Amino acid sequence: MKPFVLLATRAEDLPADQEYAQFRRYTGLSESELVRVRLEAGPMPTFDLDELSGIFVGGGPFNASDAAEEKSPVQHRVESEFAALLDEVVARDFPYLGACYGVGTVGAFLGATIDRTHAEPVSVVPVTMTDAGAADPLLHGLPRTFEAFVGHKEAISSLPASAVLLASSPLCPVQMFRVGRNVYATQFHPELDVDGITTRIHAYADHGYFAPHELHVTLTAVRRAPVSHPSRILRTFAERYAR
What we know:
By secondary structure, the chain is an alpha/beta fold. The protein has a single domain (4-241), classed as Class I glutamine amidotransferase (GATase) domain (Rossmann fold), CATH 3.40.50.880. The chain is 32% helix and 23% strand. The protein contains 7 helices and 11 strands. The chain has helices at residues 13-27, 73-92, 101-110, 131-135, 194-203, 215-221, 231-241, and strands at residues 4-8, 34-38, 54-57, 96-99, 113-115, 120-129, 145-152, 155-158, 163-168, 176-179, 183-186. The model has no long low-confidence stretch (mean pLDDT 96).
């Protein structure tokens, strides 16, 4: 089988390693079948898409809506690399699934409006499919409304006509969308379980997702309802596009 690639941007080893383990667990892919590239550690390699089954993108600390002068040299490099990659991915309609930062990468590439209007605190929220989402093969078998883990400072306020809205939540109108037939992005985290999001809450406690005194409240919020359906998206993506 041609491998999938996970493009990651987390600089902290514990959440970065756990993210890779969770993508492997929920896709069912082995280490050789899911190759991780940590973009915060070095430049994105040149990919021959003909030699890959598909591309996953994990979440990360970068916000597309940050002012240019607020972005680090690493963030500027990574954004430029994603723009070049997506030129080919979108043109070829190549299998791509970005989780959380996927919205920032694909959304920015499409010229979507990305701002702080629809930020969501770290929590569990109900995500509801649109009619297009209910008919999409990647969401086949999921309930029309399912619980998912979120936590983001920015989101898409307006999608361009070239994108298809697949799912929304009460505070965030764009939770998932598709471009063409095979390029997907989610605002929620399909790779996370309770242990994974707990690790991230502690790892990013001083990154502005919540106030220091809200740590306990945040840990409680991610346990308010069971989350079991989103991870099936990863398994379906891997099974659908493996070649």
